[in-house]
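Quick entry between incubations.
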Amino acid sequence: MTGWRSARAILIWVALALAIGVPIAAAAGSEQLAWRGPVYILAGFAGIIALGLVLVQPLLIGGYLTPLSAYRGRRAHHWIGGALAFAVVIHVAGLWITSPPDMIDALTYASPTPFSPFGVTAMWAIFAVALLALMRRRLELRPRTWRLIHMPLAIVIVVGSVVHCLLIEGTMETISKAVLCVLVLAATAKVMINLQVWRKRRTLRGESVARQ
Amino acid sequence: MAIVVFNRRNLLVAGGAVLATGLPGLLLPARANGLAPTETMSGGANNYRKGAAIMDRIGKGGFWMSGTVRRAGDGAPLAGQRIQIWAHTTEGQEHEPQSHGATLTDKDGKFRLEMPQIIPIFGQPHGHLAYDSGEFKTVFLRPVMRSAKETSLDAHFVLQPA
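Done. Structure below.
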């Protein structure tokens, strides 16, 4: 039993590393990079890494990344959330430097590219969650209230990021990109179903690892 | 003094008369206008540099940008019109001067300019074209390639007097 559990833990970590590592490696081999400046390249990879972090988030909170305890999983979830907001800032700032008018169009929802509004909406949702998480104690948000705010925003982030990414024609290789996107959706759906986030409960504390 | 009587028959006759003359009158002018002018596309003017020089080819070439320029209404081809073209290519980014060039339409209102291969920028392989010479209203276009592998792209202008 313990053998199976540790094997399963290793498998999950390997799968996670591949799910994020393969798209990054494939993008790093893209011929498009030859025609791009360093700032644009950095902005692109910040976007790919951000999508990878969106995959890590539900896995952490669902307690699938053993041996992380529930407590450490939640701590990691907070820090990765901060890293996600930071990656998005790098992504947007880098694209702004590369082509200011295109970035302004995107941020004002006036862009001709269909993927931009999805990305920009996900960005605001990420910033909103990060900001609220920072002020959660000060605002004295109860767990139930917090979840009522965080869950819809989490769905906006996940769906927005996935659609944004899938519609872009850029450095990412199509199949590894699609696999990463499907995994992001699947992980989010699984965690939300497993933890029954729609149910009224006083707290989640201590439950995240128990369900496996 | 004439007394206007509003009864059902009068209203039907009057209404029928209005419909018979009024409706085609409202609809026909739209048809008389003929070919509608091209609207500027959103994002079309991004990274525009005024006054690109007329040239035989932008950079080393290998990719063809072509299209037509016609007059709104009657659709007559417009000869000698200056069309400016720029894009993110294998030889430079959109805002860089070497990525910009211009060409003139021939007697049939057609233009064609060789330029370096366009590559995806901001998530879509696309080009930019401008008519900005004053005689007609300025129009900026931003056509998107169906695939980044394509080696040509076209765009069509229908211009209205400024």
